[in-house]
UniProtKB/TrEMBL annotation, chain A:
This is Carbohydrate ABC transporter membrane protein 2, CUT1 family (TC 3.A.1.1.-). It comes from the Bacteria. Belongs to the binding-protein-dependent transport system permease family. Its main location: membrane. It is a multi-pass membrane protein. Residues 1-22 are annotated as: Disordered. The chain crosses the membrane at residues 37-59, 96-115, 127-151, 163-182, 203-228, 262-283. PROSITE patterns: ABC_TM1 (PS50928). Signal peptide: none annotated. Residues 10-22 have a biased composition (Low complexity). Keywords: Cell membrane, Membrane, Transmembrane, Transmembrane helix, Transport. It comes from Streptoalloteichus tenebrarius (strain ATCC 17920 / DSM 40477 / JCM 4838 / CBS 697.72 / NBRC 16177 / NCIMB 11028 / NRRL B-12390 / A12253. 1 / ISP 5477). It is found in: Cell membrane. Residues 92-283 form the ABC transmembrane type-1 domain.
UniProtKB/TrEMBL annotation, chain B:
Residues 1-24 are annotated as: Disordered. It is a multi-pass membrane protein. InterPro entries: ABC_transporter_permease, MetI-like, MetI-like_sf. It is found in: Cell membrane. Coiled coil: none annotated. This is Carbohydrate ABC transporter membrane protein 1, CUT1 family (TC 3.A.1.1.-). Gene3D superfamilies: MetI-like (1.10.3720.10). The lineage of its organism: Bacteria, Bacillati, Actinomycetota, Actinomycetes, Pseudonocardiales. Keywords: Cell membrane, Membrane, Transmembrane, Transmembrane helix, Transport. Residues 91-318 form the ABC transmembrane type-1 domain. The keyword Nucleotide-binding does not apply. The chain crosses the membrane at residues 31-60, 95-117, 129-149, 185-205, 226-250, 297-319. Belongs to the binding-protein-dependent transport system permease family.
Length: 298, 332
C-alpha cells in the first residue's frame, strides 16, 4: 500500500474553473452541445426513477396498478397510512439506535486507532495497517456463522446489540479512511505540540482533531449511512423478531404484507430514502471529500 | 525502523537533554500506541481473527448451532463440489456478476465521470444528481426498480412500448433478464465510484493534455495515452471495489427475487429465494439459506471458507496489480 500524502481537492469551484484544451469556434460549440446533451440524458436517467417513485407514492392504490404516470388525485395521506399500517415509527427508532450508537462507538474506538496507524511510530505498524485493509475487504458473510453462534450463546440474537458492539471495538473501514485523512495533516503541528510537552493524547485531542474535522465528519457520515442501509446484519440477527427490525428489514417485507398496494410501498420507500438524502444535502462537501479519499488508497 | 528512530532524535528539542535511553523510549512508544489501539486490537481479534479461524474449524464439522459440532472431515467440501447443484448455480450467478458487474460498473462510472469532468457551469448540480441514487438504501432502491421494471404496468416497459418495442423484456420476472436487471440497478447506484474517478480525472495535470494536443494527438489518443495511464490506479481500485461488491452481492438479489415473485413471506425467509428459477440466487444468499434457515452451519461454514479464499485471492491479485500500476503511473 502506498500512502497518500497530498490532500485531494475535489471542491466544485476547482472543477468549475478547470481549463480544458478545446479549439475555438464551431468545434468547441459542438463539443459543448454534445457534452451537455449527454449530461442531460444522464440526468434524466438518474432522476426519473426517483420522480416515478415519488409520483406513485401519492397515487390511489388502483391507479398505482396501472401504467399511468401522473397521479389523478394526490393522496398525501398515503404517507400517514404507512405509519398506521405498520409500526414504522418503532422501526425508525431501531434504525436510529443502530446507526447512532454504531457511529458514536466507531468514533470513540477508531479515531485513536487511526491516529496510532498514521502518526505514531512503532514496530509492526505497516503489518497492522495491512491487517486493517484485509479485515476491511472481508465479505461480512464469511464470519457470520461463528459470530452468530457467539451472540446466540450470549443470548443477544434477536436484538441489534450484535451489530452495535463491534463498532465500539473499531470499524476497519473507518480506521482506514481516518488514517488517510490524518496523513494529510502536516506532522510539524504535532511535533510543535510535542516540543511544548503535550502527551500523544493531548496532541490528538488539541491538534489533530480540530484539523481533521472534515475527515471525521466524512467517516461518521459513511458509518451512519452504511448502518442505516445495512440489510444483511439486521436480517441475520433480528429477522426473527419484528420488534427489533430496522427500516431496511421492515421495508423488504412491507410489500409482502401489503401485496397490491404499490402506492403505500413506494410511500414507505420514499420515507426510508429521505433521511439519507437530507443528510447528504446538508453535508455534501464532507461526503465528496470522504468518497474521494477512499479511492486514492492504492 | 532505525532510520525513523534517528529522525525523532534529530527533532528532539535540546541536545543537552538526551531523554531516556532508547530501549525504554521505544517501549514507552509501543505502550502509547497499544493504548490507542487497544479497542481496535480487541475488535480485530474478536470479530475478525477468531471467527475466521472458527469458520475454517466449523467447515470440517456437522453443526446445527444447538448440539456440539461433530467432526466430519472434508465431507462438507465434497458435498459442495460433487452433489449440490443449487450451490453450483449460485456460484455461477455470482461469477456472472463478478465479471459483468465489474466491467460495466467501471466503464459506466468512467463514462459518467468523463462527462462530468467536461462540465463547468452547474457542475455541482450534476454531481449531486448523479450521486443521489447511491444514497438510496439498497432495499428501497431494489423495491423501486422492481416496480419501475414491472413487465406489465411499469413505466420502463410503458416507455419501451411507446417507442415501438412491442414485446419488452420481463426484467425481474424473466430468468434470462433478472441478473441484467440487477446490474442496471447497480449502475444506477454507482455514483460513489463515479465521484472517485471524477476526482482522479480532475487531478490529471492539464499540461499533459496540452503537450499531447501540441503533438497532434486526437481525442481518443489523448484518452488512451494521457488519461488512462494517469487514472489507472483509481480504475484498478474501482475493479477491486466492484469485484468485492459482486462477491458479497446479497441484499438486492434476495429482495429483488422475493418482491418480484410477489411472495407474501418476508424477504430472506422466502421459499422464493433466487426467483425466477434460481437466476438471482447468489452464493452468499445460498450460504445464508443453508446456515441460518436450514441450520446446516457446518456446510455454510464450508461455503464461507470458499468465499473467503476466492475474495482473498482476488484482493491480493488486484492489489498487486494496483501497486505495480501505481508505480508505473508515478514513473510517467
Amino acid at each position: 500500500m502506498t500512502t497518500l500524502d497530498t490532500p485531494l481537492d475535489a471542491s466544485p469551484s476547482r472543477a468549475a474553473s478547470r481549463p480544458r484544451a478545446a479549439g475555438p469556434g464551431a468545434r468547441s460549440a459542438l463539443h459543448w452541445i454534445a457534452v451537455h446533451s449527454l449530461a442531460l440524458a444522464l440526468t434524466l436517467m438518474f432522476l426519473l426513477p426517483l420522480v416515478f417513485i415519488a409520483l406513485t407514492a401519492v397515487m390511489s392504490d388502483q391507479q398505482a396498478l396501472t401504467s399511468q404516470l401522473w397521479p389523478r388525485e394526490w393522496h398525501w395521506e398515503n404517507f400517514a397510512h404507512v405509519f398506521t399500517r405498520s409500526p414504522m415509527l418503532s422501526y425508525f427508532g431501531n434504525s436510529l439506535l443502530y446507526s447512532g450508537l454504531a457511529t458514536v462507538g466507531m468514533l470513540l474506538s477508531s479515531v485513536p486507532a487511526a491516529y496510532a496507524l498514521a502518526r505514531l511510530r512503532w514496530r509492526g505498524r505497516n503489518l497492522a495497517f495491512f491487517a486493517v485493509v484485509a479485515a476491511m475487504l472481508l465479505p461480512p458473510q464469511v464470519v457470520a456463522v461463528p459470530l452468530y453462534l457467539l451472540w446466540a450463546q450470549l443470548g443477544l440474537t434477536g436484538t441489534l446489540w450484535p451489530l452495535v458492539v463491534p463498532y465500539l471495538l473499531g470499524d476497519f473501514f473507518s480506521i482506514f479512511l481516518l488514517r488517510q485523512f490524518f496523513l494529510t495533516i502536516p506532522e510539524d503541528y504535532a511535533d510543535a505540540a510535542r516540543v511544548d510537552g503535550c502527551s500523544e493524547l493531548q496532541v490528538l485531542w488539541r491538534v489533530i482533531l480540530p484539523m481533521a474535522r472534515p475527515g471525521i465528519a466524512a467517516a461518521a457520515l459513511f458509518c451512519f449511512l452504511y448502518t442505516w442501509n445495512d440489510y444483511f446484519g439486521p436480517l441475520l440477527y433480528a429477522g426473527e423478531r419484528p420488534e427489533s427490525w430496522t427500516l431496511s428489514v421492515a421495508l423488504a417485507s412491507f410489500r409482502g404484507l401489503h401485496h397490491v398496494e404499490w402506492n403505500l410501498t413506494m410511500a414507505a420507500t420514499v420515507l426510508v430514502m429521505l433521511p439519507a438524502v437530507v443528510l447528504f444535502l446538508f453535508a455534501q462537501k464532507s461526503f465528496v471529500k470522504g468518497i474521494t479519499f477512499t479511492g486514492v488508497k492504492g | 525502523m532505525s532510520s525513523t528512530m534517528t529522525t525523532t532524535v534529530d527533532r528532539a528539542p535540546a541536545p543537552a537533554d538526551p531523554g531516556p535511553p532508547v530501549p525504554r523510549r521505544r517501549r514507552r512508544r509501543r505502550l502509547v500506541a497499544l493504548g490507542f489501539l487497544a479497542p481496535a486490537v480487541l475488535g480485530f481479534g474478536l470479530f475478525f481473527a477468531y471467527p475466521l479461524v472458527a469458520t475454517v474449524f466449523f467447515s470440517f464439522t456437522r453443526s446445527d448451532g444447538l448440539n456440539p459440532p461433530e467432526w466430519v472431515g472434508p465431507r462438507n467440501y465434497v458435498h459442495l463440489v460433487t452433489s449440490d447443484p443449487v450451490a453450483h448455480t449460485a456460484a455461477a450467478n455470482t461469477l456472472w456478476l463478478v465479471v459483468v458487474l465489474t466491467v460495466l460498473r467501471v466503464v459506466f462510472a468512467l463514462g459518467v465521470a468523463s462527462v462530468l469532468a467536461r462540465i463547468r457551469r452547474g457542475a455541482g448540480f450534476f454531481r449531486t444528481v448523479f450521486y443521489l441514487p447511491a444514497l438510496a438504501p439498497p432495499v428501497a432502491a431494489t423495491l423501486a426498480f422492481v416496480f419501475l421494471f414491472n413487465p406489465g404496468t411499469g413505466p420502463v416497459n410503458a416507455g419501451l412500448r411507446a417507442i415501438g418495442i412491442d414485446s419488452p423484456p420481463g426484467w425481474f420476472t424473466d430468468p434470462a433478464w433478472a441478473k441484467p436487471s440487477l446490474t442496471l440497478l447497480m449502475l444506477w447506484c454507482s455514483g460513489e465510484l463515479t465521484i472517485i474517478i471524477l476526482a482522479a480525472l480532475l487531478d490529471v495535470p492539464t499540461e499533459l493534455y496540452e503537450a499531447a494536443a501540441l503533438d497532434g494527438a486526437g481525442a481518443w489518443s489523448r484518452f488512451r495515452h494521457v488519461t488512462l495511464p494517469s487514472i489507472a490506479p483509481v480504475l484498478l481500485f474501482g475493479v477491486v471495489n466492484s469485484v468485492i461488491l459482486a462477491l458479497q452481492f446479497f441484499t438486492q438479489a434476495v429482495v429483488g427475487g422475493s418482491v418480484a415473485s410477489g411472495g407474501a413471506e418476508m424477504a430472506g425467509h422466502s421459499k422464493n429465494l433466487g426467483w425466477p428459477g434460481n437466476s438471482t440466487l447468489t452464493f452468499p444468499a445460498w450460504l445464508y439459506q443453508q446456515g441460518f434457515r436450514y441450520f446446516n452451519m457446518g456446510y455454510a461454514a464450508a461455503m464461507c471458507t470458499v468465499l473467503f479464499l476466492v475474495s482473498f485471492a482476488c484482493t491480493v491479485v488486484l492489489i498487486r496489480r494496483l501497486r505495480s500500476a501505481a508505480g508505473t503511473g508515478e514513473a510517467r
